[in-house]
Design a protein that fits this description.
Radius of gyration: 16 Å
Number of strands: 10
Number of helices: 7
Helix content: 25-40%
Order of helices and strands: EHEEEHEHEHEEHEHEH
Shape: globular
Structural class: alpha/beta
């Protein structure tokens, strides 16, 4: 199982999606989940509406390459029509281990037509997965029922040849250990087709794999 640092490896909330958190994640060997959108004709990292000073996505890609391309880049698409900005950067920096997710359905179709890698969604409020057969993987989230994330649900997608990315419950302010226990006890954490997106990447690494 791969561990992704949610909005980078931040130590205080103000560091989320900052160069400090993102570069720290890469330096420690983690891939990341982060948010991309456009701002004045440039692709930037920003969860909310972008403001002056948002981290340019190109700087993130540069750091990713400098640190040896550690892990997967899960790119949460926050605006439509950004392919024209994203595709040249993916090509320029040779980014292959990535996926786009959370885009609108029309944009999902555009990304599919352009051959971009994307994940569909499955959650306790989303029973069906849009364009499931064509998606490379499934972003698995829980908003209300944190027992919805079951071994059965995960195995169904893995059996269909999908990579799954699991949203760890602390991202929604919930306790995470029950989910982590379930992943470890059922050997889901032993699978290359499983990714865990967490606010606690260092803790997760120690919990699942022990201290270095």
């Amino acid at each position: 199982m791969e561990i992704l640092a949610h909005r980078g490896f931040w130590r205080i909330p103000e560091e989320k999606n900052s160069s400090t958190a993102i570069f720290r994640a890469f330096e420690n060997g983690f891939g990341i989940e982060t948010d991309i959108r456009d701002y004045r004709g440039q692709l930037v990292i920003s969860h909310n509406v972008a403001e002056e000073g948002a981290l340019p996505a190109e700087e993130m890609f540069q750091a990713y390459v400098q640190f040896g391309k550690p892990g997967t880049l899960a790119l949460n698409v926050k605006a439509d029509g950004i392919q024209v900005l994203l595709e040249p950067l993916l090509e320029k920096y040779g980014i292959e281990k990535y996926f786009l997710f959370d885009m609108s359905v029309p944009e999902l179709i555009v990304n599919d037509s352009r051959g971009l890698t994307y994940f569909t969604r499955h959650s306790d409020v989303e029973d069906s997965c849009v364009m499931y057969d064509r998606a490379s993987g499934v972003w698995m989230d829980s908003f209300y029922d944190f027992h919805w994330l079951s071994v059965e649900n995960m195995q169904k997608h893995i059996g269909a040849g999908k990579t799954i990315c699991i949203v760890s419950p602390e991202l929604h302010g919930q306790a995470h250990l029950e989910t982590w226990n379930m992943l470890r006890e059922n050997h889901m954490s032993d699978l290359d087709s499983v990714i865990l997106c967490t606010d606690y990447p260092e803790r997760a690494k120690e919990y699942f794999y022990g201290k270095d």
